[in-house]
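Supplementary Methods. Inverse-folding protocol.

Structures were first reduced to a C-alpha cell string of length 394. This string, shown here, constituted the complete conditioning input.
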C-alpha cells in the first residue's frame, strides 16, 4: 500500500526500533538467564505523590470524568498551572489565553509546526534533540535545519554557526534545556540570546522544558524568565518527570496568546482532552506537591554516582550528567566501529541491557548511547556488570 512522502521522511522512530529489539530479546532463551533490564526509556520507576493517585481514584467515580472534555472544561487545570507558574517563576499568566493543557509535552512540540509552518518553511532544531522536535517539522512539510551540538563545547549551541541570512530563512526554533539526550542543564543566558535572535528575525521560539525541576547541578533555564517571552515564545512543561506521571500523559504549554490559540486550533481537530479525573489529579500535583522533585533529586544523585562508578570500573568513559534521569555515554573503543545503532543492538543481545542509540536523536548523536537511571542501584550495578562482560566479548 502506498504511503505518504512525509511518512517516509519520518522513518522508524528510535523508541519503536528499540521496542522491537527488546521484545525479541525477552522472547529469546538468553532472557531466561539474564532478564531484560530496560534503561532505554526515561520512564521512571519512582512513584508519584500518593495523594495525587487518591485524587485520580476519587474523581474517576464522578460521571463527568467519563465524558469528552473540550477546551472550556480544562479551565480549572489551566488555573492551577497558572498558579504554579506564578510560584515557580514569579510570572503572572492568563489561564484563559496563555495556558493550554496537552497530552504530554511531546504533543506540543510535534503539533506546533502544523500551526506555524507552510510546506517548505524552515525550522531549526538542535542536533541531537528529542525526536518529536524534528518529527513535528517533517509532519508539517517543513524543511529541517539542524544546529550541531558538540561535546567539546559542553553540548551548548553556538549561534554564530548561523548567519543573519540563515536566520531570516527560519520560521521556528525548537529549543530544549535541560537537554535530552545529553543531560546538560544549559544556561539562562543561552536561552536569553536565543529569544533575542528569534525576536530580531521574526520567528517563534518553542522551548521544551519537561526537566526544569530535575537539574542535579545548577539552575535550569526557563523561557518564562526572559522578559520578552510573550513576543513569539512558547514553553512546554510536563508532569511526567518531576511528578513521576509519565503514563498519564499530562502536560501544558505557556506562551504568547496567539501561539496558544494557534496550537489549540490544531489540537481541536486532532483530539479531545484528558479525563476530568486526570486533570483533577494533575491540578492537585501542581497545587499541593510543587516540590515533589525535591524528594527525587537525592535518589537520582545517588544513582548517578553509583552507575557512573560502576561504568568507569567497567572501562567506560562517563561524563558526569548535570540533570536527572540520564547518562550520555560515548561508545567504548571496542564498539566505535559499529556505530551507536548496531552497538545498542549488540549490547542488548549479549547483556540483556537496553540502551538508546544516540543516532536516534539525530546525526549529532552518533557515537553515543543514552542510559536512563530508572532502576534501583543494585539493578544498575548489575546492568554495568553485564555491559562490561558484553563489551569484552565484542
Amino acid at each position: 500500500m502506498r504511503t505518504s512522502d512525509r511518512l517516509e521522511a519520518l522513518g522508524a522512530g528510535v523508541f519503536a526500533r528499540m521496542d522491537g529489539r527488546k521484545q525479541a530479546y525477552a522472547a529469546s532463551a538468553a532472557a531466561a538467564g539474564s532478564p531484560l533490564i530496560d534503561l532505554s526509556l526515561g520512564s521512571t520507576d519512582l512513584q508519584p505523590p500518593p495523594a495525587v493517585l487518591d485524587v485520580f481514584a476519587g474523581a474517576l467515580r464522578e460521571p463527568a470524568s467519563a465524558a469528552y472534555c473540550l477546551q472550556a472544561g480544562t479551565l480549572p487545570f489551566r488555573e492551577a498551572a497558572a498558579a504554579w507558574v506564578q510560584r515557580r517563576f514569579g510570572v503572572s499568566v492568563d489561564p484563559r489565553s496563555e495556558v493550554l493543557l496537552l497530552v504530554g509535552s511531546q504533543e506540543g512540540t510535534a503539533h506546533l509546526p502544523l500551526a506555524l509552518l507552510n510546506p517548505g518553511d524552515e525550522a531549526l532544531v538542535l542536533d541531537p534533540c528529542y525526536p518529536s522536535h524534528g518529527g513535528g517539522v517533517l509532519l508539517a512539510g517543513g524543511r529541517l535545519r539542524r544546529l550541531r551540538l558538540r561535546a567539546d563545547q559542553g553540548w551548548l549551541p553556538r549561534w554564530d554557526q548561523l548567519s543573519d541570512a540563515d536566520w531570516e530563512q527560519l520560521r521556528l526554533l525548537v529549543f530544549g534545556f535541560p537537554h535530552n539526550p545529553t543531560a546538560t542543564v544549559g544556561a539562562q543566558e543561552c536561552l536569553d540570546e536565543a529569544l533575542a535572535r528569534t525576536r530580531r528575525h521574526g520567528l517563534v521560539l518553542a522551548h521544551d522544558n519537561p526537566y526544569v525541576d530535575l537539574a542535579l547541578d545548577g539552575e535550569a533555564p526557563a523561557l518564562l524568565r526572559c522578559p520578552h517571552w510573550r513576543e513569539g515564545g512558547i514553553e512546554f512543561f510536563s508532569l511526567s518527570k518531576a511528578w513521576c506521571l509519565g503514563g498519564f500523559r499530562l502536560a501544558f504549554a505557556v506562551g504568547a496568546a496567539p501561539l496558544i490559540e494557534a496550537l489549540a486550533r490544531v489540537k481541536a481537530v486532532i483530539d479531545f482532552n484528558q479525563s476530568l479525573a486526570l486533570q483533577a489529579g494533575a491540578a492537585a500535583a501542581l497545587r499541593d506537591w510543587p516540590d515533589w522533585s525535591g524528594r527525587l533529586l537525592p535518589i537520582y544523585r545517588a544513582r548517578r554516582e553509583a552507575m557512573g562508578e560502576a561504568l568507569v570500573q567497567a572501562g567506560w568513559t562517563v561524563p558526569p550528567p548535570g540533570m536527572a534521569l540520564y547518562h550520555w555515554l560515548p561508545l567504548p573503543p571496542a564498539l566505535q566501529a559499529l556505530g551507536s545503532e548496531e552497538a545498542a543492538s549488540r549490547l542488548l543481545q549479549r547483556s540483556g541491557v537496553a540502551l538508546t542509540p544516540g543516532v536516534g536523536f539525530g546525526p549529532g548523536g552518533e557515537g553515543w548511547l543514552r542510559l536512563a537511571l530508572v532502576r534501583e542501584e543494585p539493578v544498575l550495578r548489575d546492568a554495568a556488570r553485564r555491559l562490561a562482560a558484553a563489551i569484552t566479548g565484542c
